[in-house]
Amino acid sequence: MSEANGFEPKIIAFCCNWCSYAGADLAGTSRLQYPPNVRIVRVMCSGMVHPNLIIDTLTKGADGVILCGCHPGDCHYLDGNLTAQKRAEAIDLMLEDFGLEPERFRLEWISASEGPRFAQVMTEMVESIKGIGPSPYVRRSD
Amino acid sequence: MKASDDGLRIRVRDPVLRQFLVLEADALVLAPAIVPPEDAEEIAQRFKVPLTADGFFLEAHMKLRPIDFATEGVFLCGMAHAPKTVSESIAQAMGAAARAATLLSKEELELEATISEVVDANCDGCAYCIAPCPYDALVLIEYMYGGEIKRTVQRNPALCKGCGVCMATCPKQGIFVRSYRPEQLAAMVDAALGVA
After folding, report:
1. Which of A85, A101, A123, B149 has the fewest CB atoms within 10 Å, measured from its CB?
2. What's the pLDDT at A5?
3. Which residue, B168, B175, B107, is CA-closest to B140?
4. What pTM was computed for the model?
């Protein structure tokens, strides 16, 4: 996958079961192209992702993490996404403590009908991570 | 629009044909805008059901559960859901009544399997999880354990929907959602990163 010295980041996307995961599904069934650097982990709600899990993911080998939930007001669990939003502020502070760039973590709202937006957000994220380079926690053999 | 002795001649743009059409009519009746009820927000909060950005009620799933709410036992139909015709409203109302009947006709209901579970050994009763729970499914209890008062959180299995806000709030891994334990999520991440 990687070119001669091209950097291909590994990005983990936590997608909520009700909106973003369905959005990813729609991007797939609509045959939209987006970079293969993104790997999706399905969770029931963006509010279920512990800040520690985000930091662990970033220190274990991911170059970027993107947390996707429903648009505010659309949350299947009333306001789990808003809880995730509050938590994202804490995560931003934690990134600083871990010496990670703020661009490595992103929170995005993607609804089940926004397949094109899913592909666009993922493309942007991959471009942004390519711009800042590999995570300092990653030791690459390739 | 032009009025003449024969009636009205109305020039409208058809967005499908992308052309202007001239209609001959006796009267022009404009449909007023359909807006959501003002008290929708209060009702939504009372019944713990979501609203769309426009202020109409939001079903659990557009295709799979179109007349259910995520909250058990609450159904929707008609213009509470979105602007629609009378026949559509009636069809949806019949559907909602049928959905309610399937619940009422049962002696017992099965609970959702993916709900949270408290790990009593890890929970020290800090109660951080209680306020964020959107369904008020958690309460703090105290009981005697080894001659001392042990505080722990108890979850009501009938109220919990398994959103996992409690799990992500807990600093001690004292509560998790079945099938989404912290170890399971970490294993998924490891596999996705290829570091396992």
Report:
1. B149
2. 60
3. B175
4. 0.75
